[in-house]
Amino acid sequence: MPKGITLKELTNKEVLLSSGHRMCAGCGAPTIVKMVLLACDYPVIAANATGCLEVSTCISDYTAWKIPWIHNAFENAAATLSGVETMYRALKKQGKIDKEIKFIAFGGDGGTYDIGLQSLSGAMERGHDMLYICYDNGAYMNTGIQRSSATPYGADTTTRPAGSVIQGKTELRKNLTKIMAAHNIPYAAQASPSHWMDLMKKVRKALDIKGPKFMNIISSCNRGWRSKTDDAITMCRLAVDTCYWPLYEIENGVTKITFKPKEKKAVEEFLKPQGRFKHLFKPDNEWMLKKIQEDTDKEWERLQKEETCFAS
Amino acid sequence: MAKIVAVTGNEAVANALRQVNPDVCAAYPITPATEMMQRFSSFVSDGKVKTEIILVESEHSSMSACVGASAAGGRVMTATSSQGLALMFEILYIASGTRLPIVMPVVNRALSAPLNIHGDHSDAMGARDTGWIQLWSENGQEAYDNAIQAFRIAEHMDIRLPAMVCMDGFIISHSIERLEYLEDDEVRNFVGEFRTLNPLLDLEHPVSYGPLILTDYYMEFRKAQAEVADKVARVTLDVAADFEKLSGRKYGLFDAYRLDDAEIGLVILNSAAGTSKDTVDEFRAKGIKAGLLKPRLYRPFPYREIGEALKHLKAVCVLDRADAFGGSFGPVYLDIATSLYAYKEKPVLINKIYGLGGRDYLPQHAELVLNELVEIVKTGAVKSNKEYIGVRE
Question: Which end of chain A offers a freer environment for a tag, N or C, measured as fewer CB atoms within 10 Å?
Fold first, then answer.
């Protein structure tokens, strides 16, 4: 069992992603990385897919990473880290390393849901002892807010803009957490930086499990979501409170919802503060709002049912 | 003591890799390289190597995992062919730009479309400017010897670049030849312990691999990489000298066959060079001064040395087992032409494209080409600068 996390413990730990990196003000990703690294009880080596986080944290001759860190390309963070982890095992077997080291990959939704899915699937199936973390902000934000398979239905992006004929994204999001759980890995979870204790406990638990682990963490992007710069955590909290982004984990096939909002808010409360959904609030598009609410309800129902299957 | 064996090219290189005993190997099957990794996997399963093998889901992940493993700090290899090499393309540049000494046998095969599994050089030629070292091999013995030497060259502290060892698909990979193996401890001593350089696994000295470098320093970085490439030839020769002491087999940057007093000559890579040497001998027997140059270190290309070796000839035909579409001539021709351009007196140069998709290259083809060179020397007339040979009309 992982040790509990206390604020007192955290205040004494070094933050392993330094300030001075060049992520946008109000971005969720560096907050998530700091939380993840603070939760670690072990030395960590990280791999990073090409994306906002990568491109803004290591611009030669500077690096914000106080831990060993590798960026290879866009679609291969999982494969790259599987190489690092394998070399670690090889050298450990030969007695050249004795330390216990943990391996974490960070990728955005573009590098994870889309172009990196094969690499991720392969690494998970091969059983490497690593934790893959997707920070999901729902579009290719680094290249300028293009649609990804994680983009929510109806959202306005630069490659599927809301126009006079097409009203933003016409397809549903891919449920990546479910896909990763279907790999029968020992641990898959969803988390949100608004629920930091839940997020950090999940990271700590994941790192204590041997084998491949996956975490999907919602990450607000005020540029792409067209929300207020200082609302990053609020937006993530609304995603959780509306059950648009449920917090749950699947450990050894057993689903557990780790946070149930006392009062489930209407999904509109999450959508309304975001400029990318503005067009949905036109009278003609009321049916789209209704559909998003229905889809959210359906998935929340399904998840709760899934949980009851395992209730003791 | 050398051990004499009868093995396929794939088997020979797999054995070289067993003897080198790398820390990590990534493997993905592709004809005709499959057998090499199958045999190596058996060594892993039977505990004959210390290697941890990663059975990846694609060649893209194979090269990606090699980059991760090599940066982590250990000896790394993989092998591939054709489409597999093409799929790795993006990461080939990252391996060389990151200065990672990964060794990769490439069993040369044609590229799709149309799909064809047989030998030609289109795959490795497409990757010739990716910053990798390329050593080319005429037969199984050379592939075995080059594979062993490739680790020493790639891992040399002045170099630290990835290296491909090229050999012809099926013709070499699947044919059984007589060859000589070195003893395991001889190979192990020859390649030596892997020396790490800024390993990712060093927690005391955390490093960041793969930074963003924009307009301010990208060009300086590339220039530094080009300067490293300039050192490869010297290191290749030093390693070859050590290898000769060990094996008695002599290697250089290229093989100059009966070239010193030659008037006409062929430039040709890999297995077809063996076929052509017999024909050269026949012409010599007839009193015609024919010779042959077979590049070994093809990248970085030793322009100066090759230019010096060919400048005195009267007529030379460069035979390419790949075409460079839109480039008018085959890739080897372009390099040879560049090597000779600086000389005032230089041979007439023609280009033949042969053996694509595994089409047989026969002694008759070499004979035809040498006769054409004899005619060129006699009349001074060139009937065609570039031509496909051994092709149905």
Answer: C
